[in-house]
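[Solved] Which block belongs to which protein?

Original post:
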Amino acid sequence: MNPKLYPLQFEPILKERIWGGEKLKTILNKPITSNITGESWELSTVEGDVSVVANGALKGTALTTLIDESPNEILGTAVYKRFGKQFPLLFKYLDAREDLSIQVHPNDALAKERHNSFGKTEMWFVTQADADARIIVGFKENSSKEEYVKHLNDKTLVDILDTVKAKPGDVFFLETGTVHAIGAGLVVAEIQQTSDITYRLYDFDRKDAQGNTRELHVDLALDAINYNKVDTQKKYDSKVNVSNEVVDCPYFTTNYIPLESKIEVAKNGESFTVYMCIEGSFEIEFDGFKNSYQKGDTVLVPAEINSFILNGKASILEIYIS
């Protein structure tokens, strides 16, 4: 095993958003300096927003550089074979002080054709929710392009969309084409394909500090939307010290681990593993290495590290590609 590699943390890439707030600092300990910080990109190779190692001997090294030099060791043999030297996922925390825009993401074929990009299948894990916080996910009933356009033009789009109250621990899995919006008062962990392609449908006519409205992508969205009613909320077990499957899709597998003590983890070298600490704190131990992680931390375990220990008392998301 390459002695250089160890569980890697990265500098958060902080994004101001018109709908952002300060919870990424107060709840997740992110070093924000603005009261409209909406996103912390935890792990990214999106062009212009490439994550940089924050800990250990490789501190200051770009994730893309590590992958370029050691693709099998970082990504895993199966992931490298499938995606080449691309890191296929993007990990974020989001703080919605206000409602996000109503939006949709294109599928792989459409995103490739129009943007030379992956599509954007994603999931949300709600980490904090104010009273009565809710999300918009899909249509109340099966709809059509014509009905959608009529309501969009009448500014009544929300009337035909499904609204779901959200609480901590809720999981929503959003396949491409699902119209959606994170509502005010929510902090979520987001796991998605590596893509920054979003079609904004409606932004509640809000204006920025300069009095400008944000760009909408109404025409592009017409062929990207799934107009059928969808079931997005995922139920999952919470067995202690076990990886409880939450989402298993072609793009990623996410498990929920309620960690109460120590568990031994064995991997096969085919995929990297990412851990997001939702509550509490834990340590990763392997081959003389030991480091602790707190609520809000994200850590990438390179694929070549195939045996290690998780120890602590925490709620953790475990993500890999199967």
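(Second protein starts here: sequence line, then its structure tokens.)
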Amino acid sequence: MGSAPDSSSASRKARVAEMRRAERARDRRNRTIAIVAGAAVVVALVGAGAWAISRESGDSGAEAQGGSKSAGHFTTGEDGVKTWSAKLTQNHVAKTVDYPMTPPVGGDHNQVWMNCNGDVYTKAIANENAVHSLEHGAVWVTYNSKASEADVKALAEKVKATPYTLMSPVEDQKDLIMLSAWGKQRTVTGASDPNLDKFLETYVQGEQTPEPGAACTGGLSQ
């Protein structure tokens, strides 16, 4: 009569032992899965980190070079307007940019534009800020010390009366008076040159503008 309880107890103990073995097996499987998953995450993070570092290094290198020294050249049209042949980059950078032309007609630039609502600057301005103004559709009128005082005064009056323009001296430009828009440039002989008005009419907020309608106020001023 004592064999039935003993048999039942043994059976129960066996089931408990089996359940414990199964639980330990599940624990081992879960730990293995967790380890494998953790390793995969680490590998993914390391790979992503390496990619980010590589990309940052590449971007830094491009920024150190100014980000705008790309292959390109001017081609001159029948109207005397020169057009830059390569696509001009539009990245915001905090460093000085080595532009391939003077004055620059586009490329990477400072995140702050020069005010260009008919603003006349009597001192040189930073290329990087002026280029941002060109991106907004402004025309930049520049002159060197060989330009006559009368022309400089007349140009200033023209600029003051024309929204989306700015004017400043650029001493190292090759011609006395030059007009620049995004990707476009030409030389004029003086304030009375009819090509001045033609350039303004065509390129102030013209089709070449990367960001038409963007602000020409609220930026940087001397």
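Accepted answer:
You had them paired correctly. Confirming on the second one: The helical segments are 3-64, 127-135, 149-160, 194-203.
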